[in-house]
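Hi R.,

Here's the chain you asked about this morning:
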Amino acid sequence: MAFGVKRAELAAFKEQAARGEIAILTHYWLDARFPNSKTVTKVASSDINVLKAWGKKYQLPDAYIDFGHDHLPHFDLFGEIQLTVLKNEAKWDQIERFHLEGEKHD
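And here is the predicted structure, written out as tokens:
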């Protein structure tokens, strides 16, 4: 379940990925296996070759691709690589919305 995103955002993410493009979506996520992560960034594409080529830009092994969710191959990104990817892909709105650079102090 994606928390912290609107239904329309999730639908747009899935539609973009279904067209074979790279789609990127960050949402709140809690999993006991990753106690230090409160968010995950999903990078998806229905075109597996496009997704593999994108992953190579970030040295992500093909073995990291998750095929088990909504029949939409994707990478799940956490922590440092999550922030690096979001910055490189200019997803500033996601960085800010989910406070991925920490809380702002005046």
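One quick note: Residues 7-18 form the longest helix (12 residues).

Cheers,
M.
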